[in-house]
Every structure is written in C-alpha cells, then in structure tokens.
C-alpha cells in the first residue's frame, strides 16, 4: 500500500470497511465567503465525516488555522469515530487534504492516506455521492502522541533569513507573493518574506481539475528548476499553513525529512509590524 496516497479505485472497493474512516476536510479562505460544510452537504463520498478545519485549529490564536493543542485535536477526531487503530482516508474538493494529513502525522498517527484527486476525481468517474449531513459516528478515543519539532515560529524564520540557514518556500499564488493581489485574508496586506522563494502550490499537482499529486521525481524537477538546493533545510510557508503542507507531504515522499512548516505563515507575518516585508512591485 502506498504510504501517502490511495486511488479512487482502491477506496471504492473498500467503502464501509471496518477499521477505516473517510474524512472530508474541504475549506476555503475567508475572502471566498464559501463554506466547506455546504460543499460537503451538497455531495460527499458515502459514509464520509466532515472535519471542520476551524474546529481542529487553535481557538485562542489570533492567527487562523494554527495547530491546536493535542487534547483538542484528539477530542474532535475521536468524536468523528477515529481511534489509534483507524486507517484514515482524507480528501477534499480543493487543496486542504495535505494539511489534515500533516496534522494526523504531527500527533503521531501514521495510518493516514490522501485520496489522490479528491472529490473532483471521484465525481468525474461517476461514483456515488451522498448529500446532507453525515450520519453520526460512534465516538472513539484517539490518543495524540507528543509531536515532533516540525513547526517553526516567526522568530525562527527571521533567524533563518538572517543566517541564511534554510530555504524558505512560499506556496501562495504569484500575485499574493508579489503584492499585486489581495492576500486572501481581509485586513492583511500581501507581499512576502525577504529571501523567500515563490513556488505556488499548484506546481506540485497536475494541471487537471482533479489536481492529482505529482510524482516525487516531478517534484524534484520543479524544485531544482526554481533553484532550490535540496541539500539545505526547507521552511514551508503559505497564507495560513494549509497549502504549506502540500510541499511537506511531497518532500516526505521524496525522502527529504529536514523540513519545517511556519504555521503562522503570511497571516501572522503580514500583520506584524516588527517583521520585514517585501513586494515585487
């Protein structure tokens, strides 16, 4: 079994299997004024539960989508019928699945796979969907393990910039990085961190509506074309730590483990007057 991805064929053959949970984590940036739950209710994979990214993020942080405390994550995931023996399949209708994959891995659960192509591929193949709310899951006990040191803070990023000790890769769209488009978060200006390299997250998936993940070999080519020295540590960042996880997952697939995610990402950096910012205009 692929340690990162499953296909639609694989999942269709196993829907409803004991010991497996299918989780839909569709989410949109606030600027879009679109509800991930509404998209879920309009059509989802049969038997799937909906994971509200806002409910599994730190409620006390001034920055969106920050990694929660272990007990909060464990309680919410357990409520959805997941324990430490459950094989978790995560999917979305857009670009969020790698974030939830990372959160599970962060809390020690490696029995998690992403549905490659997500809901768009499932629907394109004419597979069955359910509408409305999910049937209530039987709650289980999920125990979160102590997390690894895979998150950096703004001060760590600033130190890396000063010492040139890591490559900072920003996965936001070009316009948001350059400062020519809205940041996607009301009240937060666009722009980027000094010395950061912009490789939009779409570079790590194919250009079909299904956005299937590129192979590790293709990802390596993307990084090398952008001038990334793969011998150096990488800090992955984006708008709020969501698409940054796409790069983290792809690096893991390549066997490169010296990466960290700046969880506050531009939502924090762009709001803090004490941090240096640049634009390309």
TrEMBL record:
Enzyme Commission code(s) on record: 2.8.1.-
Signal peptide: none
The keyword Signal is annotated on this UniProt entry: no
Gene3D superfamilies: Rhodanese-like domain
Record key words, sorted: Repeat, Transferase
GO MF term set: transferase activity
One family name in Pfam for this protein: Rhodanese
Record PROSITE patterns: RHODANESE_1 (PS00380), RHODANESE_3 (PS50206)
EC class: transferase
CDD domains for this protein: TST_Repeat_1 (cd01448), TST_Repeat_2 (cd01449)
InterPro entries: Rhodanese-like_dom, Rhodanese-like_dom_sf, Thiosulphate_STrfase_CS, TST/MPST-like
Rhodanese domain sequence ranges: 16-131, 162-278
Protein name stated in the entry: Sulfurtransferase
């Amino acid at each position: 079994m692929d340690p990162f991805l499953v296909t639609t064929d694989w999942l269709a053959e196993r829907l409803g299997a004991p010991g497996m949970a299918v989780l839909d984590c569709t989410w949109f940036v606030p600027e879009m004024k679109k509800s991930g739950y509404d998209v879920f209710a309009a059509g989802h994979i049969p038997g799937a539960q909906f994971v509200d990214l806002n409910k599994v993020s730190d409620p006390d942080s001034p920055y969106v989508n920050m990694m929660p405390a272990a007990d909060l994550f464990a309680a919410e995931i357990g409520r959805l019928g997941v324990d430490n023996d459950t094989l978790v399949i995560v999917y979305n209708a857009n670009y969020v699945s790698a974030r939830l994959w990372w959160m599970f891995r962060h809390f020690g659960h490696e029995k998690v796979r992403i549905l490659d192509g997500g809901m768009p591929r499932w629907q394109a193949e004419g597979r069955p969907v359910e509408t409305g709310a999910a049937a209530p899951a039987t709650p289980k006990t999920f125990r979160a393990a102590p997390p690894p040191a895979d998150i950096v803070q703004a001060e760590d990023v600033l130190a890396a910039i000063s010492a040139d000790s890591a490559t900072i890769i920003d996965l936001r769209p070009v316009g948001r990085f350059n400062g020519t488009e809205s940041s996607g978060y009301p009240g937060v200006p666009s722009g980027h961190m000094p010395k950061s390299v912009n490789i939009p997250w779409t570079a790590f998936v194919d250009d079909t509506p299904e956005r299937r993940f590129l192979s590790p070999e293709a990802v390596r080519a993307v990084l090398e074309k952008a001038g990334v020295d793969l011998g150096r540590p990488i800090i992955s960042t984006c708008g709020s730590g969501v698409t940054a996880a796409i790069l983290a997952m792809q690096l893991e697939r390549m066997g490169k483990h010296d990466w960290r995610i700046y969880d506050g990402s531009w939502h924090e950096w762009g709001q803090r007057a004490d941090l240096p910012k640049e634009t390309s205009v």
